[in-house]
Design brief:
With about 325 residues, this protein is an all-alpha fold. The protein is about 85% helix and about 0% strand. The protein contains 13 helices and no strands.
Length: about 325
């Protein structure tokens, strides 16, 4: 496998399929980027208001809850619409990314196999593998790198530096374990979506496939770097969005134009959000393409067992001896 050619073909394929980016990349990225941005901002402000950076220790979550409660106490008519919108948003956030990933993998794999496939057909097959893929994602989120960082932040904020230092070796061990498991489970999604395997069967086959193809570790390293680039982009955008919003709103508020400041700040924030979501969508789809192409190529190779080699060897020796005898005769 030529890694440079594979990545070049994957990028070219990604650029040629704008609809794939729009529907299965950009659309779910709007929700994931919004939640990720909000969650990281919460972690930042929670740390800022903790004992680590503030002499007056108080709960940032409590302050946010109080602000929300006071707002709906004053505007009680907005309570029910807010609950409905929040519930719809939560359902879409939890379900749509998994469905779009399954549909994107189906679309890419079927086109790779030279099948005629449409977005609707890919979505239909994506629905068929949605539940096991959703179950698998819930399982791996328990030991994901991001989850471990959140747990570390929680311990640091609420239990103190002393206990954090005690648990630090445990966290480091879990981070290393998370990296190894993530690497071993690389192809689980594709066994679920493409081959229709169950969760644990796909994990088992993924581990075997990774172990049997360690020569492709360099390719995996490149893909990990791509994921790292995506994370860096997200972090940069996460810091840019509030920076520009606060900067513009603060400037206009100082100029005695609070309403204009809110409007302009909101517009800038939305533009930044959509740009970040599109970039994340492109990287997501590109990652799907690279991994799908790799998965199809690796699984198409016939695995030769030790028994096959052992039984074939005497026959080959007999054939060679017969040919040698004929030549001498």
């Amino acid at each position: 496998m030529n890694y440079k050619d594979l990545i070049a073909q994957s990028w070219e394929y990604t650029q040629q399929n704008k609809r794939l980016i729009r529907w299965f990349g950009f659309l779910p990225a709007i929700f994931t980027t919004t939640v990720t941005t909000g969650y990281i901002l919460y972690q930042i402000f929670a740390l800022k208001t903790s004992y680590l950076f503030s002499e007056e220790e108080h709960s940032f979550l409590g302050e946010v809850a109080k602000i929300i409660f006071d707002f709906f106490k004053t505007n009680s008519s907005l309570t029910m619409p807010f609950i409905i919108v929040a519930a719809i948003f939560a359902v879409i956030y939890f379900l749509l990314p998994t469905l779009c990933k399954a549909s994107a993998i189906q679309f890419i794999a079927r086109q790779k196999s030279q099948q005629k496939v449409s977005m609707g057909l890919a979505l239909k097959h994506g629905f068929l593998s949605f539940l096991p893929l959703f179950e698998y994602h819930l399982l791996i989120k328990t030991f994901s790198f991001f989850s471990i960082l959140v747990e570390m932040s929680f311990v640091l904020r609420n239990l103190g530096i002393g206990l954090f230092q005690i648990f630090l070796p445990v966290f480091i061990m879990f981070i290393m374990l998370s990296f190894v498991l993530t690497l071993l489970f690389t192809y689980s999604d594709f066994f679920i979506v493409i081959d229709g395997e169950g969760v644990f069967a796909s994990i088992r086959r993924s581990v075997k496939l990774v172990i049997m193809h360690w020569k492709y570790t360099f390719l995996m390293t490149i893909l990990m770097l791509l994921i790292g680039v995506r994370i860096i982009i997200q972090v940069i955008v996460v810091f840019l969005i509030p920076f520009f919003v606060v900067l513009i709103m603060g400037y206009l508020a100082a100029a005695a134009l609070p309403v204009t400041g809110i409007i302009v700040g909101s517009v800038v924030g939305l533009i930044s959000l959509f740009v970040a979501s599109y970039l994340n969508g492109v990287v997501d789809v590109f990652s799907y393409v690279v991994w799908t192409f790799t998965f199809i190529e690796l699984t198409s190779e016939k695995e030769v067992s030790a028994r096959e080699i052992f039984t074939d060897t005497p026959a080959q020796c007999e054939t060679e001896a017969s040919n040698l005898f004929d030549r001498r005769g």
